[in-house]
Amino acid sequence: MRDAITRIKIKPLSWTPYLPPVEVADATERQLAAMKVTPSAKKVSPYVRTLVHDPDSYVARTELFNAIMYAEGGLPRQDRELGALGASLVNGCMYCANVHARQHAKLSGPCTTSALYAGRRDALSTRDAAIMDFAEALTVTPPRADQSHIEALRSEGMDDGEIQDLIHSIAIFGWANRLMHPLGHSSDTPRACRKDFRRV
Amino acid sequence: MTAKDAINTALGVSSGDAMYQLRARRPAFVSGAEACRAAVLHPEDDLDLSPDLRHAVAHRAAAFGANAAFLAGYPAPDAPELHDLAKGGQPSDPGLAALARHTDMIAVTPARASEAHLQDLLSAGFSVSQIIALSELLAQVCFEMRVVHGLSLLRNNTNA
């Protein structure tokens, strides 16, 4: 069944803010510290420069995000990425969905993301289906996830520590999606242009 | 970690509980969530968004979680206009009214967000920095809502 789906390679998108980002030359000391700008590292993405308008929340959120997505041990990285993808699809954040679908494909091959992009939920492994179902139910407002979702994750062999990791990776995209999607738009950009965009 | 952090309080967890021990296995999640909450509710630089205004917005967003214990962690301010904003009313002040509409949209239907929504906030007098700070505040509440909901399921399931 899974082999019948065309394996796709997802192209990266670029993100452009609607609001003017902080220009490094105009940044306050706290903003520079938050962006970790140093004489040898002056390039900062438009995303970072947009959010660093509020350096307090930028620093706190970035530290939490990295802890959740890159913490050692516990839930495998690809499962955290799938939780992020499920949340991003519900929240309509195509940029985040693109980034985390590509991360997932990089970590565990293109089968899962190809099935999702083809609308073939039936072709997901039972583990991936349990993760997606939980991600969607936890992401809607109000959250509708229930014991049946936990049972499904448990029957895939997940322990409480791993489920805790999954809850956080889904929840942090309830945050990130509410920044990336409302504050900017994504577009399909040729590679050469993307490089230029980063240099801005 | 203390049993009194916002998430433990919303979950009704005390320090001897299995849920307390489970959360303690990820200390960076616990301290990070508390630091984020502090950064959006009472940051070092508040960008002229008062703690009461921040609490009003947070309460209004948190109410969409349909969880009384979680909502209790964001008490509504007493000042009548901000109380009305917190409690889901439609404030007469144009700035607060724009903020009320934005809060509801971001909390419930973020997929519908567009550039026009940001223009509404700019037109209502919010600065770019304030819009970013309000965006982070709203999103933090939505994050915490889901952590509490998810962990509450684990708690029920394991009698933690």
UniProtKB/TrEMBL annotation, chain A:
The keyword Oxidoreductase applies. Residues 55-103 form the Carboxymuconolactone decarboxylase-like domain. The keyword Protein transport does not apply. SUPFAM superfamilies: AhpD-like. InterPro entries: AhpD-like, AhpD_core, CMD-like, Uncharacterised_peroxidase-rel. Keywords: Oxidoreductase, Peroxidase. It comes from the Bacteria. NCBIfam families: ahpD_dom (TIGR00778), peroxid_rel (TIGR01926). This is Peroxidase-related enzyme. It comes from Roseibium algae. The lineage of its organism: Bacteria, Pseudomonadati, Pseudomonadota, Alphaproteobacteria, Hyphomicrobiales.
Automatic annotation (TrEMBL), chain B:
The lineage of its organism: Bacteria, Pseudomonadati, Pseudomonadota, Alphaproteobacteria, Hyphomicrobiales. It comes from the Bacteria. Gene3D superfamilies: AhpD-like. It comes from Roseibium algae. This is CMD domain protein.
